[in-house]
């Protein structure tokens, strides 16, 4: 046993420390295109252990990377400089439930859908609903300010974080925020740690606001022969003061992919919108009637709505399967996550969609576009033969052009997946001088740079960016 293994085993017990090669290999991936292995994985079970581990790592200047379920799409939970991966999944308790005060207190390792299953009998929920809802952890969601299909109406994770317990880089256990629905008492430090991606400290407990669970919903599928028409409908719906619980888009490539993998028989048109309303049945029916009129103004080939939960689930099945289905669309081509989470002001969706398809054509790439158009957030998947170096070069060029367009439209690199490693070299494009302030904050809180180093902000594209890919790239 190496010295650091012994020291860590003294804190968490030897069964919760591993340097086994096979295990380290498993921890060398998340859902991103990158890969990098830690030297050791540690699984703490409480805040005190986390504090002792961090204090030890700080003394020895060993990098620490907190990790939940590893669903991050940009390499957030990869140990880029080796070191310790802190697997937080054992800290998965619900320690307090106070729905009458609109909050719960949970460990960072609890899975999103497990928390909502516990809240459902009480008639409450935590709404942001990411695509990885059945596996992702609340700590990971706070770390990247995650969200998903419900953000247009209910907001993102940051809108629900009332309080946090965080272990700082010197091992100090900090309590920040409150158990109240609002406070105006000083700097809103919960907001600082939310979205900090493990670079400022380790989240060990979360006080989360919860919302009343709607008891009725209705969902429509709307098909258009023109993707731009689908995009225009999004802003039209909102301009008419409709606020859907979800408003999603899928282009032809995505529709073909889910049809192929799930045999759904969706119409293979240029664009499909999914529109969901929830709330009081009368209000929902009224909103859906208005939405139908607005959607029909752009001449859809199909408008079909239902309040039957089984049918609603059928409508959603295709959308929810886009990400895993894309790699099955074309033999030899893999769906690759580059430029995959842009967000723009809602009415600029048609412009962003148009730009993505022009860039795809110019670079000779197949790009599937889908996502949460109701809040301005689009995901893209680039399909190509990952063994070909030239295809990677074209994909990176396309990525830079898409980011440039997105920023010029008043948007941001990431709507809900965060920055991690894969987007770190592009941060200056968006944040300019603001990035220097972010670095000042980072240095103040983590002077030895042990907390998830190499993430969130890079000045240039390092060589490892294109060499440490999870794919076997040839010439
Ligand atoms: C989704 C994930 C990729 O929306 O965010 O499917
Ligand atoms: Zn999403």
Structure description:
The chain has 475 residues and is of the alpha+beta class. 35% of the residues lie in helices and 20% in strands. The chain contains 17 helices and 19 strands. Strands 12, 13, 14, 15, 16, 17, 18 and 19 form an eight-stranded antiparallel sheet that branches. Helix 1 packs antiparallel against helix 3. It starts with a helix and ends in an 8-residue tail after the last helix. The site of lactic acid (LAC) has 7 residues, from helix 12.
In terms of topology, how is this protein built?
Blueprint: H1 3-12, E1 17-18, H2 21-26, E2 40-42, H3 47-60, E3 64-67, E4 84-87, E5 94-98, E6 103-106, H4 112-119, E7 124-125, H5 138-144, H6 151-154, E8 161-167, E9 173-177, H7 189-193, E10 202-209, E11 211-212, E12 217-224, H8 227-239, E13 246-251, H9 252-262, E14 271-278, H10 281-296, E15 302-306, H11 309-320, H12 322-325, E16 334-336, E17 342-343, H13 349-362, E18 366-372, E19 377-384, H14 389-408, H15 427-431, H16 434-445, H17 463-467
Parallel strand pairs: 2-4, 3-4
Antiparallel strand pairs: 1-2, 5-6, 6-10, 7-11, 8-9, 8-10, 12-14, 12-15, 13-14, 13-18, 16-19, 17-19, 18-19
Helix pairs in contact: 1-3, 8-13, 13-14
The protein binds lactic acid and zinc ion.
Zinc ion binds next to strand 18.
